[in-house]
Amino acid sequence: MATSPRELTQNPLKKIWMPCNNGLPEKHTSQRKVCMTNCPTLIVMVGLPARGKTYISKKLTRYLNWIGVPTKEFNVGQYRRNFVKTYKSFEFFLPDNEEGLKIRKQCALTALNDVRQYLGVEGGHVAVFDATNATRERRDIILKFAEMNGYKVFFVESVCEDPEIIGANIVQVKLCSPDYMNCNNDEAVEDFMKRIECYKNSYQTLDEVLDKDLSFIKIMDVGRRYLVNQVLDHIQSRIVYYLMNIHITPRSIYLCRHGESELNLKGRIGGDSGLSLRGKEFARCLGKFIKEQNINDLKVWTSQMKRTIQTAEALSVPYEQWKVLNEIDAGVCEEMTYEEIQEHYPLEFALRDQDKYRYRYPKGESYEDLVQRLEPVIMELERQENVLVICHQAIMRCLLAYFLDKSAGANAKILLPFRVSVNVCINITLTCVV
Amino acid sequence: FYSLVAAGPHLTNSPTVIVMVGLPARGKTYISKKLTRYLNWIGVPTKVFNVGEYRREAVKCYRSYDFFRSDNEEAMRIRKQCALVALSDVKSYLSVEGGQIAVFDATNTTRERRDMILEFAKENAFKVFFIESICDDPNVVATNIMEVKLSSPDYKDCNNTDALQDFMKRIQCYKAMYQPLDPDNYDKDTSFIKVIDVGRRFFVNKVQDYIQSKIVYYLMNIHIQPRAIYLCRHGESEYNLKGRIGGDSGLSPRGKKFAIALARFVEDQNLKNLKVWTSQLKRSIQTAEALKAPYEQWKVLNEIDAGVCEDMTYEEIGETYPEEYALRDQDKYYYRYPTGESYQDLVQRLEPAIMELERQENVLVVCHQAVMRCLLAYFLDKSADEMPYLKCPLHTVLKLTPVAYGCKVESIYLNVEAVNTHRERSEDSKKGPSPLMRRNSVTPLTSPEPTKKLRINSFDEHTASTSGVLPVCMVSEVSPPLPGQVRLGVFSSLASTKGI
């Protein structure tokens, strides 16, 4: 029979209400916002070499971590390199090289063991198992392993037969691999092509019929088309959406803050002031800089605050205003100086230093809240090509943290190079580093 | 997001024609309507053009499946004509009436028909995105027929068994000619999604842009499992009692009583697996606490931010900010509180909640007045204009159950008194679309009424360039069949123009 509701207490840092007992918070499940993963998920990459599996693994891991899902990748090739100190040739990968097969299987099992450690003891939610996993036999081993441990499995297969793309992949990431540090480029390419051949005969692609009960996405021709089968839950649905929005067309993203504002001059945070004289000068310089960059089809985004819009106005190009790009809401501390905050809200001031990422201003936001509201921006940045984002300090830190793969802790501390002056524009040209 | 032109013309995205593909009873109209409702809610003007309705207008009285036989030339002509008229209305909607997306809801099962549509789109610089629904599960097909076909105007004079039989034969008429989308060859350069077995599997080809990407994501998250969504506000709060808006106050004694009554109500519903969601404001969490079940706190479910007006009474707002007060009454949907939010902002922030509600099954959402209005507007297909005035009283649970093409709503008052926080539309409030309306801004629109009038006099205008001139069709006047009787129609054959 229902009794009167429990008393609530508010966590002073995060400003989250929780039930309490005699003023002390009770342990309570599901306090966070959407619980995205209820049981750990094992993402299993599938595909021939040089099909972008590691590129996808790393990018996906970076994205999941940024949105707050602890994720880690396990690259079996890396385990192999640690075990077999020097790589001699493609012959290691010949299907009849029993010694090679034994080592490779051992590496996979070791990696799986580390996966279990990560998902079990270390509190990880998602593990990305990056290897070719090209045979049903191998995939069955992984499925059994997952079943034994209560993990969900989601396969991500990359299929590509375009020789140009494969060629470009090899040049970009394989030639500088430790495997080929003693080879010249031509030898390396030749060897790698033979390596791919070793896998081709035994490659069993994921099949609509034979694998109909597995959850997977098959990415074909770098995202030209997709086959999606049996998406089980929220996180798999988000992963599919993300994978369907990323691309590999070369492009540049430019991030900068608005020009110096009147409130910046006064040392006050938040608010909606206009540009100072120097801020207007910056806007003009930005305009000049952008013209000189001669960027093809540049999209310009601003927040809905006066100072970013004024900055964009100086560019004399169309721009889009996004409310979600507005600066972090400092709640009761809006328009105060840090001195005033320390005076009027000494506890808040101290709490913020304790955990700047999770700290939420009273009636305001935290960096953690920012990440949630910026996720559509990240998704759209992935879809777009050349973009200039004129935003704010905290916003820019969050966006940079995504691109530079900074952890939540580091996120809030990214020292933007222009703490003193605001006239710097950061250009991110995305490259894959293996 | 909101687009502003600093200099030069505004670059609009080309309008898009979404073309449904699939045999009858595969959920095309269900998907069309649901997708349209979603797109309108997120502010993309969208309209459905259901060719079956055009056909019903043209051929007043449906006799039997013979109409759909592929060798019935007269009927083929009529059906093609209907498609052309519908396309002409699509053109008008997208070019002249400010529509952004048109959903062309018909079987479109042959390449010939789809090529005609592609040609039409090319002539008008529209993008095309196909949505094909493939399902061979006889149970699903039968359930569809039961739920939406038996009650169709086509079968109003038939008993269920006869109707079912006729409809099955109707499906057969299409099967022989059905050419599914072929990603490997014929359709490899076409943008489409194949939805297979009600969402078990999807095949996606060549997504071109943002809106197609969102459509794909939406389609991949919806399902047809029976379930119920319960929407309610927190129990009456201390601030409610004082007539103050916003803030983060706790429940009043009556509010606590409501929480207990809500717990009892939920128990009586006897649901398996109910998810409970609250906002991060104390009053909604306190309400959920009484349920003694796990709940999830969502910040996006927090009440609308009243900015500088937080914690004030309406009288105080009227005194302190008289212009703001007046502005809000003038246009409550777009009005944004200084340093706060508007209903329009709310819709944008609630979109992930809607998406997750679509994924889930039984959910109880304990939220707030403005938030509940936004969510309700999505489920009940209400426009931006109506949204801020939807009635969401305290201590009342709205139970939403998907049924046929829409949502059934039941209102359950839990018999605990509370203050009334509803403010009626004022005299100054505009009743039409605001002049502030911009393209691509988030402005929910109610899905427009279907256009279904076949304009007999203007057939000549509606011929697509590829089809040649079609003669006027004549349908012989025959008395309607007696109840229970499915009359085999006889159509006089006219000149032999090949049509679909």
TrEMBL record, chain A:
| The keyword ATP-binding belongs to this UniProt entry's keyword annotation | yes
Ordered alphabetically, the record's keywords are: ATP-binding, Hydrolase, Kinase, Multifunctional enzyme, Nucleotide-binding, Phosphoprotein, Transferase
Gene Ontology biological process terms in this record: fructose 2,6-bisphosphate metabolic process; fructose metabolic process
Could you give a GO molecular-function term held by this entry? fructose-2,6-bisphosphate 2-phosphatase activity
State whether keyword Transmembrane helix applies: no
The portions of this protein that span the membrane are: none
6-phosphofructo-2-kinase domain segment(s): 36-250
Q: Name one Pfam family in it.
A: His_Phos_1
Q: Which PROSITE patterns match?
A: PG_MUTASE
SUPFAM superfamilies named among the record's database cross-references: P-loop containing nucleoside triphosphate hydrolases (SSF52540), Phosphoglycerate mutase-like (SSF53254)
Task: Give the residues the record marks as binding substrate.
Answer: R257, H258, G259, E260, S261, E262, L263, N264, R307
**InterPro entries recorded:** 6Pfruct_kin, 6Phosfructo_kin, His_Pase_superF_clade-1, His_PPase_superfam, P-loop_NTPase, PG/BPGM_mutase_AS
Q: GO CC terms for this protein? A: cytosol
**Active-site positions, per UniProt?**
H258, E327
Q: Which family does it belong to?
A: In the C-terminal section; belongs to the phosphoglycerate mutase family.
What protein is this chain from?
Answer: 6-phosphofructo-2-kinase/fructose-2,6-biphosphatase 4a
Q: Give the classification, highest ranks.
A: Eukaryota, Metazoa, Chordata, Craniata, Vertebrata
UniProtKB/TrEMBL annotation, chain B:
Specify residue ranges for compositional bias: Basic and acidic residues: 420-431
Checking SUPFAM superfamilies in the record gives: P-loop containing nucleoside triphosphate hydrolases, Phosphoglycerate mutase-like
Per the UniProt record, one Pfam family is 6PF2K
CDD domains reported for this sequence:
HP_PGM_like
Q: Where is this region: Disordered?
A: 420-452
Q: Name one GO biological process term.
A: fructose 2,6-bisphosphate metabolic process
Query: Active site annotated at which positions?
Result: H234, E303
Q: What is a single molecular function from GO for this protein?
A: fructose-2,6-bisphosphate 2-phosphatase activity
Q: Give the keywords, sorted.
A: ATP-binding, Hydrolase, Kinase, Multifunctional enzyme, Nucleotide-binding, Phosphoprotein, Transferase
This entry carries the following GO cellular component terms, namely: cytosol
The record's listing under InterPro entries reads:
6Pfruct_kin, 6Phosfructo_kin, His_Pase_superF_clade-1, His_PPase_superfam, P-loop_NTPase, PG/BPGM_mutase_AS
Entry binding sites for substrate: R233, H234, G235, E236, S237, E238, Y239, N240, R283
In the UniProt record, does the keyword DNA repair occur? no
Q: Where is the 6-phosphofructo-2-kinase domain?
A: 8-226
Question: What domain of life is recorded for the organism?
Answer: Eukaryota
**Which intervals carry biased composition (Polar residues)?**
440-449
| Family label | In the C-terminal section; belongs to the phosphoglycerate mutase family.
PANTHER family reported in the protein's UniProt record: 6-PHOSPHOFRUCTO-2-KINASE/FRUCTOSE-2,6-BISPHOSPHATASE, 6-PHOSPHOFRUCTO-2-KINASE_FRUCTOSE-2,6-BISPHOSPHATASE 3
Protein name in the entry: 6-phosphofructo-2-kinase/fructose-2,6-biphosphatase 3
Q: State the organism of origin.
A: Latimeria chalumnae
Q: What is the lineage of its organism?
A: Eukaryota, Metazoa, Chordata, Craniata, Vertebrata
